[in-house]
Amino acid sequence: MKNIKKIIKISLALLSIYTVISCGNGEKEKNESQVNEEEEGEVFNFVVLNQKQLEVMNIELGAVEEINLGNTLKVNGQLELPPQNKASVSALIGGRVKSVAVIEGDYVKKGQVIAQLENPEFIALQQKYLSLKSSLSFLENDYNRKKSLEADGITSKKALQKAEADYLEGKGNFNATKSTLQILNVNLKSIENGNLVSAISVVSPIKGFVQKISINIGKYVSPQQEMFDIVDNDFIHLGLNVFEKDIDQAKVGQKITFALTTRTDKIYEAEIFSIGKAFEMDTRSVKIHAEIIGNHKGLLPGMFVEARILIDSKKVSALPDEAFVHEKGLDYVFVQIEHQDDEFEFEKIQVNRGISDLGFSEVVFINEIPKDAILVKKGAYYLSSEMQKSEFGDDD
User: Fold this and answer.
1) Is-above-0.90 flag for pTM?
2) Nearest C-alpha neighbor of 374 from the set 65, 83, 142, 135
3) Of 64, 100, 118, 135, which sits 20 to 30 A from 73 (CA to CA)?
């Protein structure tokens, strides 16, 4: 019995020693496995691309932006111009198009010749001007002469009245023809010197860009027919529709953030300067107008926008939604850590993603990064794919 107890004690002791050794080896293997995993994770948290790859993948780089994503009122609308900043150009006299001096998209100055029309009636109008000018001189002299004769009792009052009527009629016809030629942008002194113009010059009434051309060489243009549309984009602004239930929340001076519906990767700012006083029954909304703050290059009239009227201001660090990749329930972004010659090296770092709106999301960095850090703002998905290819040994 004593021998049996002794054997059991020895067995338990050996078992304890084996367990300790096994646990030690297991822990060691576990630690080595963790180290290997961490090393592998560290290796595949980096990706290197060249300039050509960035261009092919349409990857955009930039810094974190400060965007107002506070309590907002969602509205839609489009970019507009006030009526004094757009013009439809037409001909006052019909004619055949002799030349067109601009193409769509050209910038023109006020008074610049943009087309010329030919019409035989135009030459006849200039001849009429010269004839009326000559006749007016004769009628004026005749009227003044008869006025002197009537004062001396040499001619009758009736003859004086007839001369006065002829003079006033001739003066009216002359002034009407003169005004017509001036409207047609004809140099009157040149005509008076005998230099008749064979073509009518069509000029731009405002400065701006040629938006539309409705004529071509050889085409006959009738009077009042629209030939050109010209817009001055310097005064482009937002025209937004606010529904009746929300109109009390819109105030003059409120800030607005907006993005183009076709390009949500850029946020613009504006400020309300006018709230409509008429209610549009078909849309059950009121029109408000907002001035765009800062540079509005690339914004064109008619573009549709998605906007937010800021009720409560809250500026946050944000990136475009295309800057994030979501993997296994976690969010990541790519930070540029090195740039040498034609190569760019990026590191994938974990972040927390906050509120989202207008194609942007708040980004909260778990570990602080430099304020001037360059990040991937568009195309993060492609970098993640390249990283996975490297991880599985695909170098193609």
Assistant:
1) no
2) 65
3) 64
Contact (CB, 8 A) for 387 and 44: yes
Q: Please name each of the domains of the chain with its CATH number.
A: 40-66+316-391 (2.40.420.20), 72-81+236-313 (2.40.30.170), 87-230 (2.40.50.100)
pLDDT-based confidence at residue 5 (cuts at 50, 70, 90):
very low
Sequence length of the chain is 396
Confidence of residue 226 (pLDDT cuts 50, 70, 90): very high
Least confident of 142-146, 220-224, 299-303: 142-146
Determine the Cα–Cα distance for residues 309 and 255; give it in Å rounded to an integer: 6
pLDDT: which is higher, 369 or 34: 369
Contact yes or no for 317/363 (Cβ under 8 A) = yes
Q: Identify the helix (H) or strand (E) that includes residue 346.
A: strand 343-357
**Structure confidence at residue 393 (pLDDT):** 56
- How far is the C-alpha of 60 from the C-alpha of 87, rounded, in Å? 38
H/E stretch holding 291? strand 285-293
Ramachandran region, residue 332 (left: φ > 0; alpha: ψ -120 to 50; beta: rest) = beta
Question: With bands split at pLDDT 50, 70 and 90, how would you rate the model's confidence at 32?
Answer: very low
Q: Which tokens hold the place of 136?
A: 């007016």
Question: Are the C-beta atoms of residues 373 and 336 closer than 8 Å to each other?
Answer: yes
- Other beta carbons within 10 angstroms of residue 296's beta carbon come to 16
Q: Is 24 left (phi over 0), alpha (psi -120 to 50) or beta?
A: alpha
Q: What is the DSSP string of 269-287?
A: EEEEEEEEEEEETTTTEEE
What b/e sequence results for 47-65 when a residue is b if at least 16 CB atoms lie within 10 Å of its CB, and e otherwise? bebeeebbeebebebeebb
Predicted confidence band of residue 34 (pLDDT cuts 50, 70, 90): very low
Rounded to whole angstroms, how far apart are CA atoms 386 and 44? Answer: 10
CA distances from 221 to 91, 100, 157, 183, 198 (A): 7, 13, 50, 17, 16
| Distances in whole angstroms, Cα of residue 22 to Cα of each of 10, 12, 32, 231 | 18, 15, 15, 83
- Three-state secondary structure along 34-93? HHHHHHHHHHCCEEEEEHHHHHHCCCEEECCEEEECCCEEEEEEEEECCHHHEEEEECCC
